[in-house]
């Protein structure tokens, strides 16, 4: 397997900044001098002779061997993302959920305990509670924002704390520094799902997190094209604990998808700034609409963790805005939410986010539809809630689109 530390590096000054790393970090050009990164669409690699093949399989010589665990295009993506997250190392996975799967298989064993926010992505809860529960890994779900609940949930066998900030779809922000302190006091690791912010807005490792995971499907790709994921963290964990699992279990990212996400990283910074700016305009407008009873957006001063969010997220709120439409009962609220979604003519009705195309979602019946009503309400997700993942269209057009369904509610 290729030891990424020993492979040659791209030559540039040590102190280059995030936007430069996003465009330039990777592997050196091939002998053909390509300017855009090469796509190595190959499942295996050829060796000059049998002895060299043996040395490479024994990991005595650096080389790419087999794309289930090493491929130059995938390595370029991993290096670039690691540099942007300020991590020593990264490992790309076939999806965001595969990244969580890899982390848990790699770091935990039967009898270990996880403390996780109850506001994380629905499939994360399902994976931890349902699947890993079967193998004797127990999870306790706690408040996203009440640090005391995290501390109180710690046990002698707690090995991992898992947080996602801001959360989906309520955009609740947790205090990464405080959670890192709780984890480290107990000798546990803090993992942060950095999907909503991306390293363009938030670098959890700088704030004390041990590992960052991504759904590359979201802002890293940025244009809704591929499913991808990654884990970023210390070399010792990535190479010592995660790569061996990847080699045996094969939740690897395909070279083609890695190439797409790698190219997505090049525009991440400007996309996140532009989409955050549009989301702020939209959130302010939504707050003024009579048919809307509540808006959730970290960039609004009305957001309960506004100051923490601004400090943690480079002063930007991100591109996801959620709001609740009026409705006296859950049935009426759901009908009104469906009416607003169905009236749109520009927005895409989908459950994804992180696309240039604005997406409207009804979380209670889609992304969080597999949770019980009790779990949903515990996470604050009501039937009247709509999530808007702001894209790059003109924000006025998106306001007009949402107003088609919101204006009748106010009458
Ligand atoms: C916050 C968050 N984490 C993880 C995931 C899982 O990512 P993927 O769909 O790439 O498996 C998602 C998305 O769907 C998400 O929104």
Structure description:
This protein has 411 residues and is an alpha/beta fold. The protein has 15 helices and twelve strands. It has helices spanning 18-24, 50-57, 72-85, 96-107, 122-134, 147-153, 176-185, 198-201, 235-249, 255-265, 268-287, 306-312, 330-343, 373-378, 395-410; strands at 89-93, 113-117, 138-142, 158-164, 189-193, 211-215, 229-233, 292-296, 320-325, 348-349, 359-361, 385-389. The longest helix is centred in the C-terminal third of the chain and has 20 residues, at 268-287. Pyridoxal-5'-phosphate binds at residues 95-97, 121, 164, 168, 193, 195, 215, 217, 227, 229.
Quick summary of this structure?
By secondary structure, the chain is α/β, with parallel strands linked by helices. The protein is built from 15 helices and twelve strands.
Sequence-ordered SSE layout with sheet pairings:
Elements: H1 18-24, H2 50-57, H3 72-85, E1 89-93, H4 96-107, E2 113-117, H5 122-134, E3 138-142, H6 147-153, E4 158-164, H7 176-185, E5 189-193, H8 198-201, E6 211-215, E7 229-233, H9 235-249, H10 255-265, H11 268-287, E8 292-296, H12 306-312, E9 320-325, H13 330-343, E10 348-349, E11 359-361, H14 373-378, E12 385-389, H15 395-410
Parallel strand pairs: 2-3, 2-4, 4-5, 5-6, 10-11
Antiparallel strand pairs: 1-7, 6-7, 8-9, 9-12, 11-12
The protein binds pyridoxal-5'-phosphate.
């Amino acid at each position: 397997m290729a030891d990424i530390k020993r492979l040659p590096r791209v030559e540039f000054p040590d102190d280059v900044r995030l936007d430069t790393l996003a465009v330039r970090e990777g592997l050196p050009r091939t002998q053909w001098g390509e300017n855009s990164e090469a796509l190595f669409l190959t499942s295996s690699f050829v060796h000059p002779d049998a002895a060299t093949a043996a040395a490479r399989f024994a990991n005595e010589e650096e080389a790419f061997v087999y794309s289930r665990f090493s491929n130059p295009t995938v390595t370029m993506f991993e290096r670039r993302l690691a540099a942007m997250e300020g991590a020593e190392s990264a490992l790309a996975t076939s999806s965001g959920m595969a990244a969580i799967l890899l982390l848990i298989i790699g770091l935990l064993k039967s009898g270990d305990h996880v403390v996780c926010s109850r506001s994380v992505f629905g499939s994360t809860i399902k994976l931890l509670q349902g699947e890993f529960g079967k193998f004797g890994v127990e999870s306790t779900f706690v408040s996203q924002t009440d640090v005391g609940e995290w501390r109180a949930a710690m046990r002698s066998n707690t090995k991992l704390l898992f947080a996602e900030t801001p959360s989906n779809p309520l955009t609740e922000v947790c205090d990464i520094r405080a959670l890192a302190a709780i984890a480290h006091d107990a000798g546990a690791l803090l993992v942060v799902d950095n999907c909503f912010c991306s390293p363009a807005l938030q670098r959890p490792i700088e704030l004390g997190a041990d590992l960052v995971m991504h759904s590359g499907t979201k802002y890293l790709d940025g244009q809704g094209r591929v499913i991808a994921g990654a884990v970023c963290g210390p070399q010792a964990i990535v190479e010592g604990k995660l790569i061996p699992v990847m080699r045996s279990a094969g939740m690897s990212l395909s070279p083609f998808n890695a190439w797409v996400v790698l190219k997505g990283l090049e525009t991440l910074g400007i996309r996140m700034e532009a989409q955050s700016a549009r989301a702020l305009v939209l959130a302010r407008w939504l707050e003024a609409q009579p048919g809307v009873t509540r808006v959730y957006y970290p960039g609004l001063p009305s957001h309960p963790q506004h100051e923490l969010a601004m400090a943690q997220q480079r002063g930007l709120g991100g591109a996801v805005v959620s709001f609740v439409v009026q409705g006296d009962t859950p049935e009426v609220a759901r009908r009104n939410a469906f009416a607003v979604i169905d009236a749109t003519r520009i927005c895409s009705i989908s459950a994804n986010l992180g696309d240039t195309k604005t997406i409207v979602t009804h979380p209670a019946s889609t992304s969080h539809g597999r949770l019980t009503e009790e779990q949903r309400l515990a996470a604050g997700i009501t039937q009247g809630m709509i999530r808007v993942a702001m894209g790059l269209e003109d924000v006025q057009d998106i306001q007009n689109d949402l107003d088609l369904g919101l204006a009748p509610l106010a009458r």
